[in-house]
Amino acid sequence: MRILIATDAWRPQVNGVVRTYENLKRELEAAGHFVTILSPLDFATLPCPGYREIRLALARRSQVAAVLKQGNYDHVHIATEGPIGLATRGVCLRRGIRFTTSFHTRFPEYIEAYTGLPAWISYAFQRWFHRPAIGMFVATPSLKAELARRGFRRLMLWSRGVDTAQFNPRSRAHDGERQSGPTFLYVGRVSREKNVEAFLNLDLPGRKVVVGDGPILGVLRRQYPDVIFKGAKSGDDLAREYANADVFVFPSRTDTFGLVLLEAMASGLGVAAFPVTGPIDVVTPGVTGCLSEDLRAAALAALDLGREQVRVQAMRHDWSRVANLFIANIHQARRAAGFGKRLIRARAKLLQIKAAARPIS
């Protein structure tokens, strides 16, 4: 199958959306599919206000139309609701091309936190954006239920994976920074919506380590001089940070999944998190982590979890399975859309027959 994936999130950004589609592309191509990523690298860009490291594409429909025509794709998947997603959506609707979408990020809550714009307005926009899709992919059952209550339709589960070869409970490298007591680790974007301060404010033994970059990194470094901030890391460097920690603390209340949860679990780290969407779908309480509104209590309880038993759960999340589910969802959505069109045509034909049979007065 020839597949075009349109996404506003791509390298050099470092986030869960980018990692998801990097791994998906690799697995799909290994299975014999042809995948093209339409990203900000294909357009002129401007820095996003408040997030200068994120580039917003100046995507024109004519450019997208040319890519679609040249590629002769079997299917189009729109990953994000940004400029590239909007342009691709517009071209597909104009040309009658069926497409699927994904819901990755709670932009309504983020926009409300940063600007004060009520979240219901942004959700109305997102419903409009996703409504024409023949299928809308979501990561977890709890998110699916929530979005259904908000009026989204044609929702399909599509989970996430982890590279269990790279992220594993490797021998812990005592890098000279280790002190007496445990290490509590946070990995992710250092930004307001990630609620990092909820972790940094905890009274915990040992040390706290933050791995990641973001707009408030400088501020937090000044406010929390006792915390070790290591900046963004990837690959083996990131894997070593997980392996050298004792507990992974995930303070976010707004993530739709949290790939870092799987990376931590594959590394044998018990997870401490709030009982919200993402953690409640990924973490098995008492086995792979501890969920509580008392994040400190959850972090301390997670110290007692066995690293091997935590990893066993993560082994179930293989990227090849994620890729297979992606393709299965596409086929299911296309079959459903085809049946729906046939049903509409059949109903129209029946109405014509009834109208023709109606006696003329």
Question: How would you characterize this protein structure?
Answer:
The longest helix is centred in the C-terminal third of the chain and has 39 residues. The chain has 361 residues and is α/β, with parallel strands linked by helices. The protein contains 14 helices and 14 strands. The protein has two domains: 188 residues, Glycogen Phosphorylase B (Rossmann fold, 3-Layer(aba) Sandwich); 132 residues, Rossmann fold. Helix 1 packs across helix 14 and helix 10 crosses helix 13.
Task: Tally the helices.
Answer: 14
Q: How is the largest sheet built, in terms of strand order?
A: 2-1-5-6-7-8
CATH class of the largest domain: Alpha Beta
Q: Would you count the extended β strands for me? A: 14
By CATH, the architecture of the largest domain is named 3-Layer(aba) Sandwich
Largest sheet: 6 strands, parallel
Task: Kindly identify the CATH topology of the largest domain.
Answer: Rossmann fold
Beginning-to-end CA distance, first to last residue = 56 Å
- Cα gyration radius (Å): 23 Å
Shape: elongated
Short précis:
The chain is α/β, with parallel strands linked by helices.
Topology:
Blueprint: E1 2-6, H1 16-30, E2 34-38, E3 45-48, E4 51-57, H2 61-71, E5 75-78, H3 83-95, E6 99-102, H4 107-115, H5 119-130, E7 135-138, H6 141-149, E8 155-157, E9 183-187, H7 196-200, E10 207-211, H8 217-223, E11 228-229, H9 235-243, E12 247-250, H10 259-266, E13 270-273, H11 279-282, E14 289-291, H12 295-302, H13 307-314, H14 319-357
Parallel strand pairs: 1-2, 1-5, 5-6, 6-7, 7-8, 9-10, 9-12, 10-11, 12-13, 13-14
Antiparallel strand pairs: 3-4
Helix pairs in contact: 1-14, 2-3, 4-5, 10-13
